[in-house]
Please model this.
Amino acid sequence: MPDVRRFHAAGAALVVAFRDAGLPEVLHWGADIGEVSDAALAALDSVSVRQIPASALDEVWPLTILPTERDGWQGRPGLSGAIAGAPLLPDWTLERIDADERGFSIVAVAEGLRLESALRFDADGVLRVDHRVVNSGSAAVTIAGLDAVLPVAERASELLDFTGRWMRERSPQRRPIVMGSQVRESRRGRTGHDAPTLAVAGTPGFSDRTGEVWAVHLAWSGDAVYRTDRLPEGRNVLGAGELLRPDEIVLASGEAFAAPTAWFVWSEAGLDGLSSRLHRSLRARPAHPSSARPVVLNTWEAVYFDHTLAPLVALADAAASVGVERFVLDDGWFLGRRRDDAGLGDWLVDPAVWPEGLHPIVDHVRELGMGFGLWVEPEMVNLDSELAREHPEWLLRATGRETRSWRNQHVLDVARPEVASYLLERLSAILDEYPIEYLKWDHNRDLLEAAHAGRAGVDAQTRAVYALLHDLRRRHPAVEIESCSSGGGRVDLGILAHTDRVWASDTNDPIERSRIQRWTELLLPPELIGSHVGPGTAHTTRRATDLRFRMATTLFASAGIETDITRFTDEERAELAAWILEYKRLRELMHTGELVHDATDDEGQLLTGAVAQDKRHALFRLTRETTGEWSVPPALRLPGLDPALTYRVSVVSALTTKAYLDPKTVPWLADGGAVLPGSLLSGIGLRTPLLAPASALVLEVVAV
Model:
């Protein structure tokens, strides 16, 4: 008889059969089944056995936690490769099982191999899956794939994931899950602007707040595979793993390969249910930012490469006057960096621009009461640099080969110990000399023809960058780091294990940014997502937008400014200061509350909200991107409120487009607000003004 066990947390469960031979088999992943007897679990195993169809194997075969052809599995294998040139098809024997109510870990052995696997829920019902393979024999073992896979219910017949490009990251795409093994591959050497981010399988028509959904995210910043397998034999599988190039991972005797952690999440409350679990899980991390996320001013779109002290001092003065808390000096401060085709790699303050070093601007910023931050791009190098001229062998490329440039830059082979050591020492020297509290760490290109030590090098590069970040933070634990990658090209939980926020996109156009942020929020809580108020005309799209709309778009995030505010009028600066005051007042709510979304009954609108854990305080932002079909908009429902509480709803005027503050447009505005039960606000809603495209309405909801 198999040993069938239930593992569970926060309403989610995993039912697993441990058999006399082979790896464990997951019988169920999804809603918790509650306390049941051992006899009932054994009965579940017996009724879960698939019948043997015609033209099939002559015996029932298991779908194990690492399925291969040896098990009878005919989809994409969980483990693939070779041992001494022969296909890797191990006969596993369980050697050890360690388990508690939240999950289990196992050790299994086969000829020449040792497998260490763990499947474990955290307190919020997020299931982490880890696999590690050790070469325990004498022959070389090549690992071609090591995926985390779990079965999902056959009723999960639709798939949502994401694509995109620079300035249009995390664009959703949705389609039926069809029969066969379907794979999304990323071969960019970084997560990528077109990364799937999450693969979400769900029941037909699942939405923001309805439907049953199962999702996977790979915590990895290199090449990746997201896969579904829907086979006629009644198996529906969701999974993810690192994409490995031929012979990239070859294990000598005693060597091991650990796959990146896959995060699996189930919810019966639609996409917001997934986000709720993920956000609570991320916020529970010991290293999660615990202090209030400061208002940042970044200098890039204000001065670009023009680093002259007087204008930067004036910019810092203006920033302090409106309430900015952190001033970040962007690209252009280091040796030879007057343009984007020179200087990368030479991490020394340029004396031609800064004859006294950075001390004058750093000291001035700190005297104004702001923290100081600095832009770096350590993984890249320009050929026009002292570093590239002295060490051309440090480039990440095949020996004797030239590689194509990207944004005038090439990649350093960080997996070479001497390269990692150089970068660590140069960055540490800067952090030792100046009181820097924040690094904007950029990564502006894909990795192509990446070769390290004669093999494909993306895996080694990614792990080396993680190690570099770890070592730098160990030396300078108080320094926060942002992951920027030409915008949102490296947004994943692998890089966020070593950084404190991500830059979601290089576009500060609020129309484009609102959708990018909405789908970034599916994975990340707002305090981990950098978003800045840009100029009146976006430099990426040339679209002109209202200042209050730009501020409202930036609200649900780790907020900041990225424009030359010394050119603002007195009225514009006053509006900016009022927005910053409201952000500071509301950021604890937004950065600890539950994020909610809901489709409105008027096309072209987007609703985002944050509801406090006790449901006594909430904030909602309604933005309009395009015109809709209604001249009188349908009532707006406010999700996530407690139906038993009564609330006062009021407009946050400092964040609402001025044209819609006239109380004549909607009667309840004339009274300065409305008081209604949560049941009516969530179930029926209230009328709102007809918003024009590129405008926003921000509502605060407080229990009375």
Notes: The CA atoms of residues 461 and 667 lie 60 Å apart. Residues 570-592 form the longest helix (23 residues). The longest strand covers residues 113-121.
